[in-house]
Amino acid sequence: MALRSAAAAAVAAPRGLRRLFSTASTSPFIPPPTSAAAQAREQPEPSTNLFVSGLSKRTTTEKLQEAFSQFGEVVHARVVTDRVSGYSKGFGFVKYATLEDAAQGIQGMDGKFLDGWVIFAEYARPRPPLGQPGNNMAPPYGRQ
DNA sequence: TCTGAGCGA
């Protein structure tokens, strides 16, 4: 029981900022999120790719896929690990077969415990193209 | 074997 309370508290603030604006409904000044940037802030576009963060350093790809397969058909899953160290970076990606599976995967695994850590699942951001083939693998991605 | 709040080979 105590664990669920901790999970609820953790899911309420994965990064310290999640729904602070939603609780400020008593404020007379509420900026209407009609901007595309505002939607991209908390309204990520639906995608089969999910970004999972908060993973334990010991969480592996198979563990990630196994956990997310309970809520949908996972076609691919990967835990990002450091190339030099080989250790997990604490986050990974899960790709579902359909968008609905991805949505259920998020709502099913977001704020849940995995390897003793509260993980967070959300739609992954669209990354830029890999560039031209034949070039060095590891193009300087433009963050955000 | 580790780090922690992070978007990948």
TrEMBL record:
Domain RRM: 48-126
SMART domains reported in the protein's UniProt record: RRM (SM00360)
Source domain of life: Eukaryota
Protein keywords: RNA-binding
GO molecular function terms noted in the UniProt entry: RNA binding
PANTHER family the UniProt entry points to: NUCLEOLAR PROTEIN 8 (PTHR48029)
Protein name: Splicing factor-like protein
